[in-house]
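Regression report. Comparing outputs from two consecutive submissions.

Submission 1:
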Amino acid sequence: MAIRAAQSSARLLLSSVCVLATPVSFSQDCKHLIHTATVPLSGFADNIEIVGDRCYVPSRDAGLHILDISDPVSPLLLGTHDTPSFALGVSVVQDTAFIADTQGGLQIVDISNPAATSPIGSAPTPSGATDVVVAGDHAFVTVGFSGFVVFDISDPSQPSQVGSLDTPGHAVALEVAGDIAYIADDIRGMTIVDISDPTSPSLISSYDTPFYTLDLMISGSVAYLADNSMGLILVDVTTPAAPAHLGTLGTDGRPGDVAVLSDTAYIADAFSGITAIDVSNPASPALIESLNLPGNANSISIHNDYALIAMGASGISVVRINQCTDCPADTNNDGALTPADFTAWINAFNNNLPECDQNNDGACTPTDFTAWIANYNAGCD
């Protein structure tokens, strides 16, 4: 009843606005990144993986934390699985977690009941396992100065090593795209490997960087490298045998991970928190905004309109991604201000969508209706 009454009153106000208001140009100071929550966790949160509404956080000596993020602003810890060594990376397939557990090698865990997880199988690695990606019946595991190894996991209770390849540097993380593995090779930048035959992976090329590439993401034909000293480096991998530099942007921190959403790259920037970078022109990446966070930002993953960041001893932080526009009152994004935008705002209010937040305070409340009226009156460029 209260919502219907509010709608009726708002529509009367809107009719006055439509008749009397004269749109004028305006500018708006919009915050792109809004810190909404920090969740303390035991151990040292070093990585983060999101699958559906679950968040998986390898936390070194505490093992693997499993959280429900169906409400990203209030993540709920569902359970923790301790591992023999230091959990650094994880790949989740349905009800099974594959964990890169440094000296514990590859650990495979049943997570169907997060409150009561159970080991399925394990396998040693030639040196400390740092990251893992599962593709089909194979798990690809980076193992530092030993490069990476490939396990057949068709029987998860008995994983068996079937392939390996030494890399030029110190393999710390990887991405798999089709028949190619892209490896963050630390002191040697990025290494690109043909894995079409997992039993016999072969080097395609290397792309050296000035300092230390600690993680990367592949989006389309572009590799986004988190370089611990240089910042964000964009590389064209259209031809994997000949990767080519596109652009570089330094950051205030020390990038440890990168996630890309549309035309924006989000950097886990160590002591500088999270940094958002416009990559719509890969040859000229541009800073959008940085946001300090409690702790040391090590890893980042995107869930809908939120970034979740592994923050070391501080647990994880949740940051809302606010899609700033020059015309916030155009809530249906059709390029015009009409009464239909009010209907769109009501829908955003009822469903707690980003377009509801017209005053940029990080919350969706009735005060945003007043702000919407002001934005409507102000018009758009």
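Submission 2:
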Amino acid sequence: MEEGLAAYRAGNFQVALREFRAAAEQGDGTAQVSLGVMYLRGEGVPEDPALALHWLQLAAEQGLAPAQHSLALLYFEGRGVARNSAVAANYFESAALQGLADAQFNLAVLYSRGDGVRQDEVLARFWHAKAAQQGLGDAQFALSQMLAQGQGGPADPLEAAAWLRKAAATGNRRAIEMLSEQSPPPAHPAAAVPSQPLPTQARVPPPATPPPPPPASAVSAPKDVGPGQAQALFERPPSPLSAAHFRDLQGNAAAGDADAQLQLAWHYLHGVSAPRSPVRSYVWAERSARNGNATARLLAPRLQKRLTHRQRGAARSMLAP
């Protein structure tokens, strides 16, 4: 890994690629991220989003926030994979929970727009605040607008003005223009969408039409079901969901619906409607169990036993409050 980094810094991409690949194939998560980025940028190899997706997926499963964020962008933009903003939201959330400011900003964007998740201005304001506190100018500007308009919580003009000044100090063009004009915020600001997004940030389209009604939960079991019966039920792949239904399922899961959380775990376990992910399968099953789902209480410990040591560490970070 060190030889690869030294070669990369020197611009010797062929050597870097060889060293990164050797380390990545041995399970080094940082090397997997580096290799994925090189395939994304076409450094030393032809640009290949599909191969980038492969290596970033492996690193993301080890809990590396930069990999999770890059993977989220691929799904959001539809590069190397079919566009799926619900899956993107999942990976943005994973990285955001680990403190990555860009991921926190992008997750706030999705909650503000209702893209991939149910629209929720409270959560949008929460994640903008998290990113703003880390000095991200776009998030500071977005938070200032939400505070000025009372979006996602009480209006606070003084706090809004303070964040607007902080955003301007970072070079945020819209904040600078607003301060120079000394005009009040617009009635309906596009608070979550910077005019010139950073290269690492997602470009968010207008809100989609409302999703169809959520599908009935495909996982149900009587309260007295035995561990063996629960395991047998879960080992059968679920029926595929449309992108809209999966987005709605994720919205219900994120809102705390235990049945939806267990169904989401089921889909991630088998790679149906979303990429296969043992870590996310266990995490959603554990969340469902904590919310009182009897089947999840039986299955979550079994799913945890399937994880590697690194995957368990990633799961712990995702489950942290």
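Expected: both submissions complete independently.
Actual: both completed, but the second showed a warning that disappeared on reload.
Relevant detail on submission 2: Residues 5 and 237 are 41 Å apart (CA to CA).
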